[in-house]
């Protein structure tokens, strides 16, 4: 028996994922999205992509990958990428960042623009929008915008609905839940939907941070790029950070995840504290 085939069978599942298939999947998702998958992600890769194989009536990962290779423009590439994207998120996750954003924009007399670069299913961009409402007041907040992007089209489709389990919404506190969400009734009991004034502040767009060009317009008062760079290697991180420079206002904030540190990757940003960065003096535009 071929050693790769034996490894796939030994993996303990009904579909055959060989070592060669796994290496090819890792290469394809890196080329397409910059995501680095290590050996300990093999179980995750199997469980997520096995659903795609079963949907297409396939029993072999090699056959699935060959079909992808023959059809570079196929919609299945989108499903492949979505399947391998992680979407762990919550309202006001890493809560210390939101008061920092509020303090940064307090007293503004012009609309504020914030980019959420890993929007997932919407909890983070809606949390940013709520923070702007609280910091700016309803009139100026209604003119402000949160540009929310993600590579995962399935996650973005959910985010655009603004509908979440009521239990999840109530975790942010009764006062915020009442102010910014409507409770569902009838068939929608147990759910809550973001109020229209909140949803109107957020624009959702698909964007791949690994792309050479980004189809959004800056500059932004703050960029939230939290818990996504950990999936990229250091060259990709450095490239993205360099690209961020032209999208951030001179006094803008780059807000990152608790496990991400860029001080030794880029000279364009300096740590302000609590995983918040500002542009270095060398990176700021000269008068």
List the helices and strands and how they pair.
Blueprint: H1 3-10, H2 19-33, H3 42-55, H4 61-70, H5 76-83, H6 97-105, E1 113-116, H7 123-136, H8 138-143, E2 145-150, H9 153-161, E3 163-165, H10 166-170, H11 174-180, E4 181-183, E5 191-194, H12 196-199, E6 202-206, E7 220-225, H13 234-244, E8 248-256, E9 269-273, E10 276-279
Parallel strand pairs: 1-2, 1-7, 2-6, 7-8
Antiparallel strand pairs: 3-5, 4-5, 8-10, 9-10
Helix pairs in contact: 6-7
What descriptive keywords fit this protein?
2 domains, Chemotaxis Receptor Methyltransferase Cher, domain 1, 13 helices, CheR_N, alpha/beta, 287 residues, Rossmann fold
Description:
This protein is α/β, with parallel strands linked by helices. The protein folds into two domains: 3-83, Chemotaxis receptor methyltransferase CheR, N-terminal domain (Chemotaxis Receptor Methyltransferase Cher, domain 1, Orthogonal Bundle), CATH 1.10.155; 97-279, Rossmann fold. The protein has 13 helices and ten strands. The strands form two sheets. The protein has a seven-stranded mixed sheet. A three-stranded antiparallel sheet has the order 3-5-4. The relative contact order is 0.11. The model is unreliable at 1-12 (pLDDT under 50).
Overall number of structural domains:
2
CATH homologous superfamily caption of the largest domain? Vaccinia Virus protein VP39
Percent strand: 15-25%
**CATH fold naming of the largest domain:** Rossmann fold
Structural class: alpha/beta
Helix content: 40-55%
Strand order of the largest sheet: 6-2-1-7-8-10-9
Radius of gyration, taken over Cα atoms and rounded to an integer in Å: 21 Å
Average of the residue pLDDT scores: 90
What is the tally of beta strands? Answer: 10
Give the terminus-to-terminus CA distance: 69 Å
CATH structural class of the largest domain: Alpha Beta
Instruction: Count up the helices.
Output: 13
**Uncertain stretches of 5 or more adjacent residues:** 1-12
Keywords: Methyltransferase, S-adenosyl-L-methionine, Transferase
GO molecular function: protein-glutamate O-methyltransferase activity
Enzyme class: transferase
GO biological process, one term: methylation
